[in-house]
Structures are given as structure tokens and as C-alpha cells.
Specification:
36% helix; 206 residues; seven-stranded mixed beta sheet; alpha/beta
Length: 206
């Protein structure tokens, strides 16, 4: 069974494929479809962006599509960067640019007020069916400097209190058990299992 991931982000693709590997699906991404249009993520919420990406890609490829929109919500910054997480420092910014901006804005914030969460919304779109969504979160604290080299995005800043390490220090194996995306994907797996079981039944009943 073929599943398309509605992203070109190499870090996300690797992470999602790793978490979904036990479903034994033929997983592709937007990188396999160079003619796909660039999707403007102009939604005001993670739900809006995830649904938009999933439905646009599904309409083009005619296969089930999984799309996520995720980001960092920092309490001291009133929930920012939120839906702007990937472009917080500007349209063409790098992960390092975003990290520098967060640290600059947080430089006067004491340790007691550095709470944050990663939020991930995943949408599953498939031809002829209603798009469904699931959500996962992970609570943490913003560090005062980048720590660790694994992962991507804001991982070097996000300390998981139970481990007292950032996502970038924990590494892939642990992160893929406890992260916001891992929690959302665990719920998405149930949707995918239902989807492909129903498709198999329809195929056998023809």
C-alpha cells in the first residue's frame, strides 16, 4: 500500500518513516513528485495548515496522504513562534536563524518562566473520503543555549524535564518514542490501519 508524506523536509521524512516502519507501507514524499505545486501555509492554526497540505497533495497524487504541521509554542512569548515556527526569523531562514531569534527574545526570561511545548497536528487525506486529524504534544523547557547535535529545527533548545536533556541530546530512538510527532503518529497509525484494512476489504469484495 502506498502512502505519501506531504513534506520535503528531510528531517521530518526520516522521522516519520522511522516511526511508521512497522506498518510496512510503501512510503513516498513530495520529493518524489517534483511537479507538485508549492503549498502556501497561510492557515492560522496547525489544523488548517495540515489539512490544506494533505488535501492539495492528495488531489494531485490520488493516493492516501499524511501531512503534519507542527511547531513550538513558548509561554513567555505568548505562544510564539507557533504556526510560524519554520520561518520565525524570516521567509528563507535556517534552523540556526530561528534558534538565534528565540534565544534573543528569551534572554531576559528566568528559568522559572521558560515553559514551552511542541505541538503536532497530522491530517490524513484520501481520495473520496473525509480528511481526519489527530494531535500530539510534548511539554518542555527552553534552554539558555543550544545543546546537542541530533534532530532538526528547535531540537537543540527543547529540554524534556524527565530526562533533563534536549531533543538534540536524546537522539532519534528516545525522541521517536516521546515527541509530539511520535504521539500524533501513534494516533495516525490507527487511522492508517483502518484505512488500509478497509481498502483491502473493498479490493477482495470486487
Amino acid at each position: 500500500m502506498k502512502l505519501i508524506l506531504a513534506t520535503r523536509n528531510k528531517g521530518k521524512i526520516q522521522e516519520m518513516k522511522s516511526i511508521l516502519q512497522d506498518l510496512h507501507l510503501d512510503i513516498h514524499s513530495c520529493a518524489h513528485y517534483p511537479s507538485l505545486p508549492k503549498i502556501v501555509e497561510d492557515g492560522k492554526t496547525f489544523h488548517e495548515n495540515a489539512i490544506k497540505k494533505a488535501e492539495i497533495v492528495c488531489k494531485e497524487v490520488r493516493f492516501p496522504v499524511l501531512a503534519d504541521d507542527s511547531g513550538l509554542e513558548i509561554e513567555a512569548l505568548n505562544g510564539r513562534p507557533g504556526v510560524l515556527s519554520s520561518r520565525f526569523a524570516g521567509p528563507q531562514c535556517s534552523d540556526e536563524d530561528n534558534i538565534r531569534k528565540v534565544l534573543y527574545l528569551m534572554q531576559e526570561v528566568p528559568n522559572s518562566r521558560r515553559q514551552a511545548r511542541f505541538r503536532c497536528v497530522i491530517a490524513l487525506a484520501q481520495p473520496g473520503a473525509t480528511t481526519r486529524t489527530v494531535e500530539g504534544t510534548c511539554e518542555g523547557i527552553i534552554s539558555c543555549e543550544p545543546r546537542g547535535t541530533a534532530g532538526f529545527g528547535y531540537d537543540p533548545l527543547f529540554i524534556v524535564p524527565e530526562y533533563n536533556r534536549t531533543f538534540a541530546e536524546l537522539g532519534e530512538a528516545v525522541k521517536n518514542r516521546i515527541s509530539h510527532r511520535a504521539r500524533a503518529l501513534a494516533l495516525a497509525k490507527k487511522l492508517l490501519t483502518e484505512t488500509f484494512e478497509n481498502r483491502s476489504k473493498k479490493h477482495h469484495n470486487r
